[in-house]
Design brief:
Layout: H1 24-54, E1 58-62, E2 65-72, E3 76-80, E4 87-91, E5 97-105, H2 110-122, H3 125-171, H4 175-192, H5 201-205, E6 209-210, H6 211-215, H7 223-228, E7 233-235, H8 241-268, E8 280-286, H9 294-305, E9 308-313, H10 326-336, E10 341-343, H11 353-359, E11 364-365, E12 371-372, E13 378-381, H12 401-414, E14 419-423, H13 431-435, E15 439-444, E16 451-457, E17 463-468, E18 489-497, E19 500-509, E20 515-517, E21 521-522, H14 528-543
Parallel strand pairs: 3-5, 8-9, 9-10, 10-11, 13-14, 14-15, 15-17
Antiparallel strand pairs: 1-2, 2-5, 3-4, 4-7, 6-7, 8-18, 12-13, 16-17, 18-19, 19-20, 19-21
């Protein structure tokens, strides 16, 4: 018999349950399971992302070409120019490389194309930034797709459940399991198709060599060029004297362009431009670049010398508004990407490509709406209505130049805040707003030469000014890319106090590389407080022997320079160019 006083043995004491009813060993199992799933995800996602990245390609517009970009792990950036010109490559300084296959272009001749390559190489910031941006974008896209692929087996594991996973593990060593596994692997290989590759037969027959060795003793590289291009390797054959002469001409163009614009940018940093007074802010005005990417670094140096906090672009950055001119917009973006940027399209920026391209890269494209502008200004503007595909006012189409000008005037006069700046391509577009007394300052370009500032007293008694800046690209024609400007190139520094324009100063680079720094022009009469502050600063400067309101030119004073602008009637300007 069992002793009634004898009790069954008590179970061995186990670990106490923790809040939530999860014992320590259960939590460890949960952590282990999560870690296993994360490892499975990473095991699939990482190689998938790498393979997708290396197998990806992207169609872009580069150096005026349709081009195809493909990432590599060769550590080199390779430029494949086609059957006529040699291929080029440079070391990227990292494991990641890039293969660029150039396609069709609008260039009319090989000589023109080679010279354009030289210009682009002399100011490479825009091209480099675009390649870097596209490569990062491709890497992000591949990482995202790889992450999704890595999540698929994780989801399968979770959906199958423990019992079904055990059944599959048990079935794997069987004949049926082996057939299923082999079938799955075959599907992956068929989808990947690793046996497919590009035709590299021509590549294998040619070897990379230095540029100097490729050109031989017949082409002498300037010492400065030889040092800069020491890392450039070439693959191809100089089969004719004509090809050799093209390359020699390109090297000369590269050297001339690089030397001119680099020297101009260095000198611009030391120009004796007006220093803004306390409480003032400066905005850089550029216009009519017409593809001259060499001037972008120069314009930025002028802006930095003047203390510019933003940039306004009055349009005609291209010659036709075509997609092949994206190199010009890339260069502009590279020069000013860290500043607030405002722009309108000019009559040569045909269609919507230019405005949409810049807008996608952070530029504020004015469209007839009143907005908060740089330096506390109230800004209004719109694209030039003569550009093909433009001419619309918001939802309307087919409006004439005069009709758009009237609509701008209506928008300015109906604004709750006074418009301190109107940015347009052709300053004539702001005439009605000035005549009605609804804007302080209208700025534009278009004519390629400076005009103004000209004061206008509106019918309501309010004063305003009109100013046309010269071509920043030094453009004599619609296409200004070259080893130096074809005419004087101008940048203008606009000075604001409390959002009101109080003065401006033109800075001009001559075709011989010399600089003209024009006198600072005070825009008197726009704000009594501003005028009083300017007069006080002028009196203080005169007491110490200085003249903050005027800076003498670095060469011969130009006839356009003056210390102030007096009220008067707006002079008529030609609207055609």
């Amino acid at each position: 018999m069992t002793d009634p006083d004898q009790h069954a043995p008590e179970p061995a004491p186990g670990p106490a349950s923790e809040p939530g009813g999860i014992r320590p060993y259960s939590r460890r199992r949960l952590v282990a399971a999560v870690g296993a799933l994360a490892g499975l995800w990473l095991l699939v996602a990482a190689p998938a992302a790498v393979l997708l990245f290396l197998g990806s390609s992207r169609d872009v517009t580069l150096a005026s070409h349709d081009a195809v970009l493909r990432p590599t792990l060769t550590g080199h950036a390779v430029l494949r120019t086609g059957p006529v010109l040699p291929d080029l490559r440079v070391d990227t300084g990292s494991l990641v490389g890039l293969d660029v296959q150039l396609g069709k272009t609008e260039a009319s001749s090989t000589a023109e194309l080679v010279k354009r390559y030289a210009y682009l190489a002399s100011a490479p910031d825009g091209v480099e930034e675009k390649l870097r941006r596209e490569l990062v974008s491709m890497a992000r896209a591949a990482a995202l797709r790889g992450a999704v692929l890595g999540a698929l087996p994780v989801a399968a594991v979770l959906l199958l459940g423990r019992r079904r996973r055990a059944e599959l593990r048990a079935a794997l060593p069987t004949r049926r399991g082996a057939v299923a596994a082999a079938t799955g692997l075959a599907l992956v290989v068929a989808f990947w198709q690793p046996w497919e590759s590009d035709d590299d037969q021509t590549d294998d027959e040619r070897s990379w060599t230095s540029l100097a060795d490729f050109l031989g003793d017949d082409v002498m590289l300037p010492s400065s060029v030889a040092a800069e291009l020491a890392g450039v390797e070439v693959r191809g054959d100089v089969t004719t004297n004509q090809t050799q002469r093209l390359i020699e001409s390109a090297i000369d163009t590269y050297d001339t362009s690089k030397e001119f614009y680099s020297a101009a940018a260095e000198e611009a940093a030391d120009l004796d431009v007006r220093t803004p007074l306390e409480g003032e802010q400066v905005v850089l005005l550029v216009s009519d670049r017409h593809d001259n990417i060499g001037m972008d670094a120069v314009a930025r140096a002028v802006g930095d010398a003047g203390g510019a906090v933003a940039v306004m672009d009055a349009g005609d950055d291209t010659s036709t508004g075509s997609t092949w001119e994206a190199f010009s917009l890339d260069s502009l973006q590279a020069a000013f990407s860290d500043l607030p940027r405002f722009a309108v399209s000019g009559n040569h920026d045909n269609g919507t490509f230019v405005s949409s391209y810049l807008a996608d890269r952070g530029w504020t494209e004015l469209d007839g709406q009143v907005i908060d502008g740089p330096a506390g200004s109230t800004l209004l503007g719109t694209a030039d209505p003569r550009a093909s595909g433009l001419g619309n006012w918001r939802d309307e189409t087919g409006l004439t130049f005069a009709e758009v000008a009237d609509r701008l005037a209506d928008a300015a006069c109906d604004s709750d805040e006074r418009i301190t700046t109107m940015l347009v391509h052709d300053a004539n577009l702001g005439d009605p707003a000035l005549e009605r007394g609804c804007v302080d300052l209208v700025v534009g370009g278009h004519t390629h030469v400076q005009e103004g500032p000209t004061a206008v007293t509106g019918e309501n008694g309010e004063l305003g000014y009109s100013f046309t800046t010269g071509t920043t690209g030094g453009a004599a024609y619609a296409f200004a890319l070259g080893s130096k400007p074809r005419r004087e190139a101008q940048m203008t520094l606009l000075t604001y106090r409390d959002g009101v324009p109080v003065g401006l100063q033109g800075v001009l680079l001559q075709t011989d590389g010399t600089w003209d720094v024009e006198d600072y022009v005070a825009l008197t009469g726009l704000d009594a407080d501003v005028d009083a502050a300017e007069e006080a600063a002028q009196a203080a400067a005169e007491a110490t022997g200085g003249e903050p309101g005027s800076v003498s030119t670095s060469t011969v004073p130009t006839s356009r320079g003056s210390s102030s602008a007096s009220p008067g009637k707006v002079a008529s300007r030609s609207s055609g160019r």
